[in-house]
Amino acid sequence: ASVENSMLTLFQTVVAGDSWGLIAVQVIEENPATALVLIPSLLTVSLGIVNLILAVIVDSAADARQKDMEERMKDAATEKQQAKRGLLSIGAAIDKDRNGTISFDEMCMAWDEIKEF
Fold it and tell me: Of 27, 53, 83, 97, which is the most buried if we count CB atoms within 10 A?
């Protein structure tokens, strides 16, 4: 029963953080060598919990970044498609005789007539 009570007390003190000042400090004062077990245990558990919290934050940030990148790529593709349609529209407006080519005269007339050009 003594070992079980000791393990429960260690768990409560280090993992749960219950009564650190009431139990652990008195044990360390009574036997300073126990500090070699209690303090590293506390630090390990504390750093482990901080590490878990940080991992969740970093994972959430990575997911948000991935979604943002996908959204930017979609926006860029949409802009490219709109620019392409605009250029084709201007080209069609410049080609007055609809032969599929733009002559120098058509280009000069478009310069004066089409403001987008």
Answer: 27
For residue 23, which of 47, 40, 46, 6 has the smallest C-alpha distance? Answer: 6
| Cα–Cα distance measured from residue 15 to residue 13, given in angstroms and rounded to the nearest whole number | 6
∠ at Cα 62 (79, 54), nearest 5°?
155
CA distance 82 to 29: 76
Is 19 within 8 Å of 42 (Cβ atoms)?
A: no
Question: How many C-beta neighbours within 10 Å does residue 35 have?
Answer: 14
CA distance 53 to 68: 23
The pair of structure tokens assigned to 82 is: 């709109």
* pLDDT tens string 51-72: 999 999 999 999 999 999 999 9
Per residue, the 3-state secondary structure of 45-114, as one string, reads HHHHHHHHHHHHHHHHHHHHHHHHHHHHHHHHHHHHHHHHHHHHHHHHHHCCCCCCCCCHHHHHHHHHHC
